[in-house]
Amino acid sequence: MSEHHVVVVGGGFGGLQLANDLKGAGVRITLVDRRNHHLFQPLLYQVATTILSTSDIAWPIRHLYSDRPDVTTVLGEVVGIDTAAREVALRGGMTLRYDSLVLATGATHAYFGRDDWEPVAPGLKTLEDATTIRRRILLAFERAEIETDPAMRDALLTFTIVGAGPTGVELAGIIVELARNTLPREFRNIDTRKTRVVLVEAGPRVLPTFAEELSAYAGKALGELGVELHTGERVLECTPAGVETSNGVIPSRTIVWAAGIQASPAAKWLDVPADRAGRVIVEKDLTAPGFPDVFVVGDTASVIQESGAPVPGIAPAAKQQGAYAAKVIRARLAAKPSPAPFRYRHQGSLATIGQSAAIIDFGRIKLKGWIAWWIWGIAHIYFLIGTRSRFAVAWSWLWIYLSGQHSARLITQKETMRDDNRT
Ligand SMILES: Cc1cc2nc3c(=O)[nH]c(=O)nc-3n(C[C@H](O)[C@H](O)[C@H](O)COP(=O)(O)OP(=O)(O)OC[C@H]3O[C@@H](n4cnc5c(N)ncnc54)[C@H](O)[C@@H]3O)c2cc1C
C-alpha cells in the first residue's frame, strides 16, 4: 500500500504546526505555499517601522524542513480544489493528489467593499506590505524636508492609521517614537517632532477586544506618546491627499490600513458555507462540511466556542488547530477513535504601545506598562525560529534602547521620489 499523502496548503502558523506534529507518523507530506518563507506576522509592524529587517522575522520553508525527508516543499499558488478527484490545482497547471488535505491559507485585510482604497492605504500582511509602508513613511519625511508649501509639508508629516486593533496601535506608537526620538537630529528644514500620527477607529475605544481598563490605559499611553486618537469616526474616503472621516478631512500623505479581515478563498474552492469574513464554517473536528478528508485550520476557519464566541484569528489559535488536525490524521491512520472535538485554549492577549509599554490580558491577571512590555518581548523572542533571529531581534531592541536609533531605515523597491505620497 502506498504511503498516505497529506497535502498542506499554507506554511503559516497552522500549516507548520501540523507538519511538525506529523513527524514520524508514517505519512508523506507536501507543503505548498505561494511564498518561499514562513512569516512571523506579529513583528511585521517592526519591519514597517524600521526596527527590524525582513530576514529577522521570516525563514525559507524549504530550509525549515531540510532534515525531514518525509516533507516535500512546493513553491506554488493553489487556485482550486477538485474534491471528487481529490486533487489540488496550482497556478500554471500542476495538480497534487491527496489522501488528506489541510487548508491553512490564512486571511488578509479587507476594505469593506472599497478595494480601490488599497493603493493609497496599504495594509500590513506580507513582507512586501511592510517594506512598502516603510518606504512610504521614510519618503514622506524626505519630501517634507524639501517641500516649500507649508500645507503640503504638514500633510507629508501627517500619518494616518485606520483601525485601532493591536496592529494599528503598534504602528502608531512606533511611528511617533521614530519621529520624536530618532529623526530630529538628521533633518535640517523640518522639525520631525511636530509630526502628527492620527489613529482613526470607528468603535468607541482602542483595542476593543481587550478589557476596558486595559484599553483605557492604552488610549492614555498613546495620547502621552503624542498619538492623536480619533475614536468613533468612520472612514468615508481615502485619497492620495488624505482621509475623510465622519468628522471631517485629515490631510495626510501617508495612510496605513489596519482594519478588517478577509479569509483566503478556501470556502469558494470547496463550495462550502462561509461566515461574513469568508471563513469556512468547519465541523467540530475542523473538517469542511461534507469533506471528512479536508481540514481547514487557522485564520481561514470559522470555529465557534462553547461560549458562543468565535475562536480569535491569532497565531496560538492557528497552532492549536494545526496540532489538532495532526492528531485526527494520526488517529485515523491508527484506526483509533477520533479525539474529542477541538477546544481552543486562550493563553492571553498582548499588545505594545511604543517601545516601552504594553498590555497583557490573561483573563483574571491583567498587566500593563513596562513589565508587560518585558513579558511581551521575551514571549516574542521565544517564539521566533532559530538562535540567529532571536539574537538579531534582541540586539535591535537593545540598540534602540541604548542609542534611540532604528537601524533598518532603508528606502528600497523603488528608486525615485516620484511615486507614492505625492501622486
Ligand atoms: C500585522 C499582523 C500582526 C499580527 N499580530 C499578531 C500577534 O501579535 N499575536 C498573534 O497571536 N497573532 C497576530 N496576528 C495574527 C496571526 O499572524 C494569524 O492569526 C496567523 O498567522 C494565522 O495563521 P494561519 O496559519 O492561519 O495563516 P498564516 O500564518 O497567514 O499563513 C497562511 C499561509 O498560506 C499561504 N497561502 C495563502 N494563500 C495561498 C494559496 N492560494 N496558495 C498557496 N499558499 C497560500 C500564505 O503565503 C501563508 O504563508 C497578526 C497578523 C498580522 C497580519
TrEMBL record:
Its EC number is 1.6.5.9. Pfam families: NDH2_C, Pyr_redox_2. Residues 5-322 form the FAD/NAD(P)-binding domain. One of its GO terms (molecular function) is NADH dehydrogenase (quinone) (non-electrogenic) activity. This is NADH:ubiquinone reductase (non-electrogenic). It is an enzyme of class 1 (oxidoreductase). PANTHER family: EXTERNAL NADH-UBIQUINONE OXIDOREDUCTASE 1, MITOCHONDRIAL-RELATED, NADH DEHYDROGENASE. InterPro entries: FAD/NAD-bd_sf, FAD/NAD-binding_dom, NDH-2, NDH2-like_C. Belongs to the NADH dehydrogenase family. Residues 346-404 form the External alternative NADH-ubiquinone oxidoreductase-like C-terminal domain. The chain crosses the membrane at residues 367-385. Keywords: FAD, Flavoprotein, Membrane, NAD, Oxidoreductase, Transit peptide, Transmembrane, Transmembrane helix. Gene3D superfamilies: 3.50.50.100. It catalyses: a quinone + NADH + H(+) = a quinol + NAD(+). SUPFAM superfamilies: FAD/NAD(P)-binding domain (SSF51905).
